[in-house]
Amino acid sequence: MVDNTAETSTGEPAVSGVDPNRVYIFDTTLRDGEQSPGASLTSAEKLEIARQLARLGVDIIEAGFPAASPDDLLAVQRIAQEVGTPDGPVIAGLARATPGDIDKAWEAVRPAARPRIHTFLATSDIHMQHKLRMTREQVIDRTREMVAYAKAYCQDVEFSPEDAGRSDPDFLITVLAVAIEAGATTLNIPDTVGYTTPDEYYALMRRLITETPGGDRVIWSVHCHDDLGLATANTLAGIRAGARQAEVTVNGIGERAGNTSLEEVVMALHTRRTFYNLYTGIDTTQIVRASRMVSNYTGMIVQPNKAIVGSNAFAHEAGIHQDGMLKNQQTYEIMTPETVGLSQSRLVLGKHSGRHAFRVRLQELGFELSDEDITTAFARFKDLADKKKTVTDADLEALVADEFYGPHELYKLLDLQVTCGRPGMPTATVRLQGPDGREHVAPAVGTGPVDASFAAIDSIIKAPNTLIEYSVHSITEGIDAMGEVTVRIAAQNGPSRTFGGYGADTDIIMASAKAYLAALNRMLVVKGSQFSQPEGESSAIQVTPAVG
Ligand code: KIV
Ligand code: ZN
């Protein structure tokens, strides 16, 4: 028998083969995170993020909700095949408690070496009465049947009583005991609407863990939303109460105010390890890269003061702080930037530097590129080194992310030329390469150079949309810094989803055009063939005049 509490750091594991002092990190960026308004990702991006999550060392990747659409199913399946290797993470698929959803979840995750089906059913009175229209007895029966149904496919079954934070604890204990009896191996307790406080959540977890019959045979898991800004505090409270799986997302993205942020929980356990006496399998030096990748692909900007991964998280502005830092870093720093992968090192390669050193630095940063891609990246690096005095790791990451990991499935920006200033009409001419390899050239006039560039792109791609967010900031300091642009657009036809895009360049108009094109590409890939494409012409270069 096990004491599941954090206070006890020794003893038998709750489940055989499981270390009682380890907190398993269940990442749901690709499922709960992708449900964030505007966080739509293409399958290729999901795969790339899953690869980064594996490098980060997460234990379980919830790769998606396969019943949501055939594309979602395929994306999960591909992650199961390519990332769910024997020494890789467990790959989970979410399913409502219905045979149809569970069939699809199984079809998606079964190629993984270690698949998991995660099924859920609401247990709060408000959800049962108004959403499910089911009685308590029906919910108990459905839980038994559907956990057993999932178990017939897969040894590893997780069950979540949705809205547990507002459910009657006595009823929860009954439902959870039934789930254990039917074969669930992980019980996840979601605070679906981010309602509970840390003390309440601790008490709830403690009670469920100690009073649920069979509770010592399963892993207990926490899943907290951030509606009151308490997600990380609640998650840590649940861990102190004995939970050993934490469900989290990179940058805390998720439904409404988001989910619990992976980096906050991991770094709290890491930085305060003598307090918690627990550890995770996360390689913390991969955190910043994961954060940037998720932000760039989803177009969801990380607020500058965000803990761990915000651009100000390690910046010291006040003179008194700077003075202290110069004397001893620990005066104002509880963890070093290097621990989370924020390297201050400068790549001292100039235009005369060799390709070998360049490749080695990319490898050190975790980028494995083919010879052909190294050639392209090296040319871009030389170009950048011509313009910038020093090229930082952040510049290099932006350059590689922008060139190789963006959604370039459809249109690629070849050239952009802009004239602007007063007097005059801001005019842009763009040259794009289309999905079929043909080139398209179009000029347009706009209210400014960015507007003109976007209008020129629109006149070629013709995918009606509304620009709802545009932001620009510099990656590093200095007048020659690379500019990063993030945009968000909403499709004018079809379901109201928004799409983010990211671009980086020393020229912010170029960065803007890249970001806009990335968002358009993402919209076109995600929405399939809903949008009209340029009419085909046989000439290699198609010139489409337009006025924006
Ligand atoms: O917040 C929630 O309740 C969920 C469940 C599906 C686990 O995301
Ligand atoms: Zn959730």
Architecture overview:
The protein has 548 residues and is of the alpha/beta class. The protein is built from 17 helices and 17 strands. Strands 1-2-3-4-5-6-7-8 form an 8-stranded parallel beta barrel, surrounded by 9 helices. A 4-stranded mixed β-sheet has the order 11-12-13-17. Strands 14-15-16 form a 3-stranded antiparallel β-sheet. Helix 1 runs antiparallel to helix 11 (287-298) and helix 3 (99-109) packs parallel to helix 5 (136-153). The longest helix has 20 residues, at 508-527. The radius of gyration is 25 Å and the shape is globular. The model is unreliable at 1-14 and 529-548 (pLDDT under 50). The protein binds 3-methyl-2-oxobutanoic acid and zinc ion. Zinc ion binds at residues 32, 190, 192, 223, 225, 255, 259.
Question: What is the share of helical residues?
Answer: 25-40%
Count of DSSP-assigned helices: 17
Question: What is the global morphology?
Answer: globular
Strand order in space, largest sheet? 1-2-3-4-5-6-7-8
How would you describe this structure in keywords?
548 residues, alpha/beta, TIM Barrel, Double Stranded RNA Binding Domain, eight-stranded parallel barrel, four-stranded mixed β-sheet, 17 helices, 17 strands, binds zinc ion
Question: What's a concise summary of this model?
Answer:
With 548 residues, this protein is α/β, with parallel strands linked by helices. It is 38% helix and 19% strand.
